[in-house]
Write a structure and sequence with these properties.
mainly alpha, 5 helices, 245 residues
C-alpha cells in the first residue's frame, strides 16, 4: 500500500506506528509544541479542576472570580491585600465607593484637623461642642449665656461686677426701684429731694407760726380779760367807797 498523501487516503500499520510518536492518541499524551486553536473552543472541560495547571470552564471562573467588566460581580469574602495598594481608583460617586488618599485628604478626619476654607452650614447647627478653652474656640449658646451679658435682652448677673475704676455710660432712666441710676437722674432726684425738703421746712415753719399766732391770740384774750376784771374791781371799790359815806 502506498504512503498516504491525501486526508482520505487509507493508511497501513506502518504509517500508524510512524506517526504514533508525533500525534496524540485518544488516550491522551503530552504535547511537544503549541496548538493554534484557530478561534475554536475546547469543550467539555472537567467542571471541578483540582490542579493549578488544569484548564477550567467558564462557569467555574464566573463562580470563583470577579468579572472586571461586570459591575454586578461582587466579593463574597474579605480581600486581604497583604500590604499591597489599590491604585488608580475612580472618583467616588456613591457612599460605598472606595476613595484614594488624595480624595480622603480633602476631607476632615474624625480625629480633627485644620480647615482650609469656610463651611456653609446651610442653616444647620453644630451640636455638642465642648467648653471653649482658647480665644478662637467656638462657643455654645449656653456657654455664651453663662459667661457673657446679652446686649439685646435682660440678663442677670451671677456675681458682683467690678468696672475697675471705669465708667458705665449710656444708662437709661430707671423705671423700677431695682434699676441703676445715671448721674443726670441722681442730680434730678437730689434737686427734687431738696425742693421737697424746702417745702417740708416751709410747711413746718408755717404750721409753727400758725400755732404761735393762735397761742398769742389766746394770751392776748386772757390779758384783755384780766384788764377788764381789774377795771371792774376798781369800779366796784369806787362804788363801795361812795356808799360808805
Amino acid at each position: 500500500m502506498r504512503w498516504p498523501e491525501e486526508d482520505h487516503d487509507e493508511v497501513n500499520r506502518a504509517y500508524v506506528y510512524f506517526v504514533a510518536g508525533r500525534k496524540l492518541t485518544i488516550e491522551g499524551g503530552t504535547m511537544q509544541g503549541q496548538i493554534d486553536m484557530g478561534e475554536h473552543r475546547i469543550r467539555n472541560i472537567n467542571p471541578n479542576p483540582q490542579n493549578e495547571d488544569e484548564l477550567v470552564p467558564k462557569q467555574w471562573i464566573e463562580e470563583n472570580f470577579l468579572n472586571r467588566y461586570n459591575p454586578a460581580s461582587t466579593m463574597e469574602r474579605d480581600l486581604n491585600m497583604d500590604g499591597r495598594h489599590v491604585s488608580y481608583l475612580k472618583e467616588p460617586e456613591q457612599s460605598h465607593h472606595a476613595v484614594t488618599k488624595e480624595y480622603a485628604d480633602t476631607k476632615l478626619s474624625l480625629l480633627g484637623g485644620d480647615m482650609q476654607g469656610e463651611i456653609g452650614m446651610g442653616g444647620n447647627r453644630i451640636s455638642y461642642l465642648g467648653e471653649p478653652q482658647h480665644d478662637n474656640d467656638a462657643h455654645r449658646l449656653r456657654s455664651a449665656n453663662d459667661y457673657y451679658l446679652r446686649r439685646d435682652r435682660a440678663t442677670w448677673m451671677r456675681n458682683d461686677l467690678s468696672v475697675g475704676g471705669l465708667r458705665v455710660r449710656g444708662m437709661a432712666n430707671p423705671q423700677t426701684d431695682q434699676d441703676g441710676v445715671n448721674l443726670r437722674t441722681l442730680q434730678a432726684s437730689a434737686a427734687s429731694v431738696t425742693s421737697a425738703a424746702d417745702m417740708v421746712v416751709g410747711d413746718a415753719i408755717t404750721n409753727h407760726a400758725n400755732i404761735l399766732n393762735r397761742e398769742i391770740r389766746k394770751i392776748l384774750a386772757w390779758v384783755d380779760n384780766i384788764i377788764l376784771l381789774y377795771f371792774q374791781i376798781q369800779h366796784l371799790n369806787t362804788r363801795l367807797s361812795i356808799s360808805e359815806r
